[in-house]
């Protein structure tokens, strides 16, 4: 079943030099293990391919039911240099939530995941 | 020792809501008001202001903030801690003393001024001693851009602020102290935390991190259920209710808008986060993976379980240097074929820049989708009612960037049709101040505390 990350998590992002950080937080605690499994480094790097010029780092915060991603080379050189509207990476959070996950039907229904419209 | 200390956050950056400091002091009893005015970009802006006028270089909004909370300071003993000093804490102190004279409260103001973070006057001496101040991102030595450096400030910790409080200050002004130190210092001062109390110190830093961005933890800029956050117009800024054992609660004054729950606090916790296992500050290294959150009442979140470890022997240095020029211009193209027209205009513009022999380090084009010209007539969003063409250039040659700014407006008459949104005129050429993060040995930076009665 196709599931939108938008329906599973909320997020906030900000800047650290030319790097955008995106914190992704499960909307329900029981969905966190699924996010931790699905939002792999490779998956997130592929999602942002063509948007960022550098690599991705990933950290788990099970205590907060959250994952933190560092997207390097995201901000056209960083806040003061950048010509981008989102020079400080404030809406990379919602760009992350555009991700669509493919979850086995049985698991999706046992976790009560809302299907993508 | 007090069993509870209340630290209220009244400003998350220079430019934040002017009403917030007064509302925090008048909305209920608090012990401390902390005001964070500095961001990476702010220091360089302040340095430019100081170059033009040696009495400037601090966050001037702070004077108005103090004026608005004077009754709280004088009558109810609320203490204020702010990094409003920017690159000129002494000038900030002078302005405060002038205000106190004018209001007839000079005798009740004890001002602590923390200096020593400014490394600009010592830069050549430090580099000669072998401090390369290498760029933390690129590894390049500062010597590469030394002749273009505008400001250089070490991020200092809570020690000198604790000292100022200990010497009786009721208003403490610092230069580039860390945002978190502004909250940490009163907790250390009241509860006696110090080196070795790493878990409690980490709690103080995390309390600081949660409230340092003002209402960003109490419902501001919050994505989760944003439509249901009540009375955002009247948003309550956060308060830390801290206890000697290092546990604390985040809350806000009754009768204010916004929301404080596990979600809003979690969003702020992950904001601008790097490696959560090691949140490095001059005071302590905090472990964000130890934080436990629990709803403890309406608009009240309990934070506990925090662990931390000793700090490193380095301080971060924030260096700003001149790095060419930039300009950004916009035009709005309207339906039909709004996006196609905006793209055609970008192509026209780029051919003209080429024809004129202008070259830039970067040219960035964006098409901002909006809904301003056709309002409810817009209909299907796939057929955009308008698109804003937004083109920015960056380069070392000011004349070329200047010439670019004159190429946008002519297209209103000689480019693709249905164009508007040019009333503000030509874009402005801005000098770029770039950011250079570096590390320096802690022992090199010597802070000073001056207490003025």
Q: Can you count the beta strands of chain A?
A: 6
Spatial order of the strands forming the largest sheet of chain B: 11-12-8-7-1-2-3-6-4-19
Main sheet record of chain B: 10 strands, mixed
Q: Largest interface, by Cβ-Cβ below 8 angstroms: which chains and how many residues each?
A: A-B, 35 and 45 residues
End-to-end C-alpha gap of chain A: 11 Å
User: Could you tell me the radius of gyration of chain B in angstroms?
Assistant: 25 Å
Kindly describe this structure:
- The complex is a heterodimer of chains A (117) and B (453).
- Chain A has 117 residues and is α+β, with helices and mostly antiparallel strands.
- Helix content of chain A is 21%, strand content 29%.
- Chain A is built from 4 helices and 6 strands.
- Chain A has helices at residues 32-38, 41-47, 92-96, 105-110; strands at residues 2-4, 9-16, 19-26, 56-61, 66-71, 100-102.
- The longest helix of chain A is centred in the first third of the chain and has 7 residues, at 32-38.
- The termini of chain A are close together.
- Chain B is globular and about 75 Å long.
- With 453 residues, chain B is of the alpha+beta class.
- Chain B has a 10-stranded mixed beta sheet, with helices on both faces. In chain B, strands 5, 14, 15, 16, 17 and 18 form a 6-stranded antiparallel beta sheet that branches.
- Chain B has helices at residues 20-26, 40-52, 61-76, 89-103, 123-128, 159-166, 181-191, 198-211, 262-269, 338-355, 398-405, 411-414, and strands at residues 5-11, 32-35, 79-82, 111-115, 149-154, 171-174, 239-242, 248-251, 279-280, 285-287, 292-297, 300-304, 307-309, 314-334, 362-370, 386-395, 419-420, 430-441, 448-452.
- In chain B, 28% of the residues lie in helices and 26% in strands.
- Chain B starts with a strand and ends with a strand.
- In chain B, helix 1 runs parallel beside helix 3, helix 6 (159-166) crosses helix 7 (181-191) and helix 7 (181-191) crosses helix 8.
- Chain B contains 12 helices and 19 strands.
- In chain B, strand 1, helix 1 (20-26) and strand 2 (32-35) form a beta-alpha-beta unit.
- The A-B interface holds A 10-18, 21, 23, 25, 27, 57, 59-66, 68, 70, 76-81, 83-85, 93-94 and B 40-41, 44, 136-137, 221, 223-224, 263, 266-277, 288-293, 305, 320, 323, 326, 328, 362, 364, 366, 368, 390, 392-394, 432-435, 437.
């Amino acid at each position: 079943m196709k599931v939108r990350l938008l329906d599973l998590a909320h997020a906030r992002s900000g800047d650290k030099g030319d790097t955008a950080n995106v914190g992704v937080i499960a909307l329900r605690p029981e969905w966190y293990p699924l996010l931790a499994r699905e939002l792999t480094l490779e998956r997130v790097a592929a999602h942002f391919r063509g948007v960022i010029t550098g690599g991705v780092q990933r950290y788990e915060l099970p205590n907060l039911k959250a994952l933190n991603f560092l997207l390097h080379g995201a901000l056209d050189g960083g806040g003061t240099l950048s010509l981008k509207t989102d020079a400080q990476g404030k809406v990379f959070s919602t760009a992350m939530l555009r991700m669509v996950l493919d979850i086995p039907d049985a698991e999706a229904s046992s976790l009560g995941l809302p299907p993508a419209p | 020792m007090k069993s509870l200390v209340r630290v209220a956050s009244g400003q998350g950056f220079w430019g934040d809501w002017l009403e917030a400091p007064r509302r925090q002091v008048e909305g209920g009893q608090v012990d401390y008001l902390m005001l964070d005015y500095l961001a990476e970009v702010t220091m360089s802006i302040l340095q430019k202001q100081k170059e033009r006028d040696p009495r400037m270089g601090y966050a001037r909004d702070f004077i108005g903030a103090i004026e608005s909370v004077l009754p709280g300071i004088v009558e109810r003993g609320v203490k204020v801690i702010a990094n409003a000093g920017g690159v000129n804490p002494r000038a900030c102190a002078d302005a405060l003393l002038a205000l106190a004279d004018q209001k007839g409260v000079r005798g009740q103001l004890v001002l602590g001024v923390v200096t020593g973070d400014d490394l600009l006057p010592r830069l050549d001496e430090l580099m000669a001693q072998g401090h390369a101040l290498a760029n933390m991102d690129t590894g390049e030595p500062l010597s590469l851009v030394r002749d273009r450096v505008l400001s250089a400030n070490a991020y200092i910790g809570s020690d000198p602020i604790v000292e100022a409080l200990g010497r009786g200050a009721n208003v403490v002004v610092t230069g580039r102290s860390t945002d978190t130190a502004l909250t940490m210092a009163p907790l250390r001062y009241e509860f006696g935390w110090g080196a070795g109390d790493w878990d409690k110190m980490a709690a103080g830093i995390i309390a600081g991190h949660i409230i340092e961005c003002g209402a960003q933890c109490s419902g501001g800029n919050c994505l989760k259920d944003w439509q249901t956050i009540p009375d955002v117009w009247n948003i309550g800024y956060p308060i830390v209710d801290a206890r000697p054992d290092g546990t604390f609660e985040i809350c806000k004054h009754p009768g204010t808008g916004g929301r404080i729950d596990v979600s809003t606090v979690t969003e702020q916790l992950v904001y601008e986060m790097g490696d959560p296992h090691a949140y490095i500050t001059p005071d302590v290294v905090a472990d964000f993976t130890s934080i436990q959150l629990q709803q403890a009442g309406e608009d009240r979140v309990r934070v506990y379980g925090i662990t931390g470890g000793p700090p490193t022997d380095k301080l971060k240095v924030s260096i700003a240097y001149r790095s060419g020029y930039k300009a950004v211009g916009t035009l709005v193209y309207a339906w039909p074929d709004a996006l196609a027209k905006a793209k055609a205009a970008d192509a026209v513009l780029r051919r003209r820049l080429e024809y004129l022999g202008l070259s830039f380090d970067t040219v960035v084009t964006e098409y901002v989708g909006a809904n301003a010209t056709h309002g409810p007539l817009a209909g299907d969003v796939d057929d955009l009612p308008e698109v804003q063409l937004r083109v920015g250039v960056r380069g070392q040659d000011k004349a070329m960037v200047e010439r670019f700014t004159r190429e946008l407006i002519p297209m209103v008459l000689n480019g693709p049709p249905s164009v508007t949104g040019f009333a503000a005129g030509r874009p402005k050429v801005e000098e770029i101040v770039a950011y250079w993060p570096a590390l320096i040995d802690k022992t090199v930076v010597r802070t000073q505390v001056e207490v003025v009665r």
